[in-house]
């Protein structure tokens, strides 16, 4: 939920009783696609940002954190990844980071909402500018149907989805995760948007996702990062695989690639899997349910 | 800065252009001490919380994160700590965690503002209830003068201060850090509130503190934690010492103490020193200045 108060503050409600406000310069897109409400804003603190159904998807100022942690961590583990599938990711940020790897040969990006991609291409070139890379195939269709019908194998699958409400809901289902598992090549890795441990509503979704993932993937880990414009600032990705331990990777090889990053590094790669006790306990209980 | 809008939302401004809102049940203390504005609230999402000069100091819901990271990490490194000095910490949360260690024999707590302690004792027993522990000596005086004049040696010094404005400003000065260094016993450790790397105003203070600490202490490290009600949710403590590496500690011994914690654990202890690149770069530049 969002509201514009006095026409100059955007609010995202983290819960009914906590909210985050951004002073806006301009609310320049206020529209609705076939799937969701879409709004684009310009702001003083975060540059441009956009929301889907009132929830902040990204801001120019802090999207680097999310996209670096989404892409570079699994790429450091599965360094030979050639064929990549992205579900969601309409802003193009995941693609932007992926195409920096010469070894990546092909990226299928499956985004249900073409309007998100079109608007990001026009108004958020910071994230969307690499969507035209010749290695990228855009598929404007339902990710659930795509993975159900796909036969190709992928070395890396990124679930860059919204929260599990509305259009994103099916991307948190057990059937969807099972299809993703079937599409993973040997040694393949899946990373998914895994919600947040702090506010109760988010934490319940974190538990649900972890329970389902744990029943599908033998390796199922969670890692954290500091994301200032997401609820509580404490956000998680899931790392799932048949056989890859996320902490077994060649840090020197990744560093030899010479990729400049502003958040990710190979020390932080190891550190980000060390979760607080209250998060570990909720994840543990989720697995037992 | 804070404002109550329509008498039901408390706002803390992270910057002039970003703010955090908490729906309040009650604003039951609205006063001013000799040193600062003091307000106590009750809220739906965070329980009771209090602010100094409009900035959230703690909420009942997430103070465990701050206090566990402030106390247990250095206690795991300097497990034999007997004599402890706390500068600030009027809410009692640091004392509450410290008195769980039987080996801690004496705690000098130096809080400039007696009214904060009195109000926390009355309205925040969750943090303040151990201030009466017989090992605790409360000193209601200026921490700067206290460390300048003190002759005793401490195994652990905790700088549990407000931000470096107003009453907290001198607790970020080079002279203050030099006095603390002089008071540290061999093998002693100092941990200080080290601001946040994200918003520019906070990050500048982080740099200043790190530059000063680095010029005083041979060992000067920074560790991070997720603090939902502080600006950006990304907060830091500094770890300073003449000779102790914070990553050289006996995890098994700490775990054998059997202390229940909701945030801190010995894996996270290692992980929390792995900082994002943008933070490392700012700290590195600060040291070179």
From TrEMBL, chains A, B:
The keyword Transferase applies. One of its GO terms (biological process) is spermidine biosynthetic process. Keywords: Polyamine biosynthesis, Spermidine biosynthesis, Transferase. Gene3D superfamilies: Spermidine synthase, tetramerisation domain, Vaccinia Virus protein VP39. One of its GO terms (cellular component) is cytosol. Pfam families: Spermine_synt_N, Spermine_synth. Coiled coil: none annotated. Catalyzes the irreversible transfer of a propylamine group from the amino donor S-adenosylmethioninamine (decarboxy-AdoMet) to putrescine (1,4-diaminobutane) to yield spermidine. Homodimer or homotetramer. This is Polyamine aminopropyltransferase. It comes from Christensenella minuta.
């Amino acid at each position: 939920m969002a509201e514009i108060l006095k026409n100059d503050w955007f609010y995202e409600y983290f819960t009914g009783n906590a909210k985050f406000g951004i002073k806006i310069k301009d609310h320049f897109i206020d529209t609705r696609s076939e799937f969701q409400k879409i709004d684009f804003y310009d702001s003083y603190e975060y540059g441009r940002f956009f929301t889907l159904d009132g929830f902040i998807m990204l801001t120019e100022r802090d999207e680097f954190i999310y996209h670096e942690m989404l892409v570079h961590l699994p790429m450091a583990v599965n360094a030979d990844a050639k064929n990549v599938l992205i579900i969601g990711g309409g802003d193009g940020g995941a693609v932007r980071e992926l195409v920096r790897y010469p070894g990546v040969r092909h990226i299928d990006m499956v985004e249900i909402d073409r309007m998100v991609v079109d608007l990001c291409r026009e108004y958020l070139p910071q994230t969307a500018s690499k969507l035209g890379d010749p290695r990228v195939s855009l598929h404007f269709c339902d990710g659930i149907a795509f993975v159900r019908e796909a036969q190709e194998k992928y070395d890396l699958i990124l679930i860059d989805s919204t929260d599990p409400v509305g259009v994103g809901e099916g991307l948190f289902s057990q059937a969807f995760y099972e299809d993703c598992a079937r599409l993973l090549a040997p040694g393949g890795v899946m990373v998914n948007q895994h919600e947040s441990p702090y506010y109760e509503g988010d934490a319940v979704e974190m538990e649900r996702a972890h329970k389902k993932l744990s029943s599908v993937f033998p390796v199922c880990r969670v890692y954290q990062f500091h994301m200032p414009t997401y609820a509580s600032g404490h956000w998680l990705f899931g790392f799932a695989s048949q056989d890859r331990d996320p902490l077994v990777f060649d840090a020197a090889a990744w560093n030899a690639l010479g990729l400049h990053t502003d958040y990710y590094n190979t020390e932080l790669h190891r550190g980000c899997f060390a979760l607080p006790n209250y998060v570990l306990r909720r994840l543990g209980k989720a697995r037992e349910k």
